[in-house]
Write a structure and sequence with these properties.
- The protein is of the alpha/beta class.
- The protein is 49% helix and 11% strand.
- It has helices at residues 15-31, 51-64, 79-90, 132-140, 148-155, 160-186, 197-209, 215-219, 223-233; strands at 4-9, 36-39, 67-71, 95-99, 125-129.
- It has a five-stranded parallel sheet, with helices on both faces.
- Residues 154-160 have low confidence and may be disordered.
Length: 237
Amino acid sequence: MTTFTVYFAGDLFDHKHLAGNAILAEAIDRRSAGRYACVVPQDLEQASERMVDIRNQDLKQVMACDLALFNFDGTDLDSGTVVEFMMAKMLDIPSVLLRSDFRASGDQEREGDDWNLMCSFYPRSKKVQFNAMAWYQDARQTGGPGGLQDAMKADGPGGPGGLQDAWRDRLYGRIADAVIEALDAVRTEPCAFGDDEARVRTVYEWATRFPGSGFDAVCGPGFVEKTIENKRRKGLL
């Protein structure tokens, strides 16, 4: 079985972000039976505390990963996530945009996406959008799959562990399944580079240079060749 790495981008500034990212990443790994392996930036070891080193490490992971998942929640998108998204789109990396925020936002009117129009309309990009509150309430409902009755069977009456695990697994399993379906679909879309091997190499080489601040040195010799070959072997280029 081929395993595809997925760069998991999004906010990571408080316990809700950190826990939600970790739980969803694990659910995607598990429910895809290893087909998708998420790379979560918050779990990467930092070589130093210098901000430029953290930036460079994250951008290198965006380049190296096969696909990407971007959390597009909030009334305004996280700026770091947008930068990573644009790096991914420059390299034509298949991407899934995940929005669970039920608030209407953006500048695209009722028919458009709930974020700034400059982050829409890119090829090899699929949207997974749902109402987080509605899905959460569904997962908590008594008697439903993963609800109170299932928890009591697992832990006995009053057992808190089964109750918490049941609704959480149901909620994140549902989200993971939707993301996996979108990842399956987006990675089969035709590559924007076509059969232009020279252009692929040129664009990837440029991606190691334009960020500056030592990014090309972080990537190192052979990185571009190895990355292109890996993606070509998996049918992504």
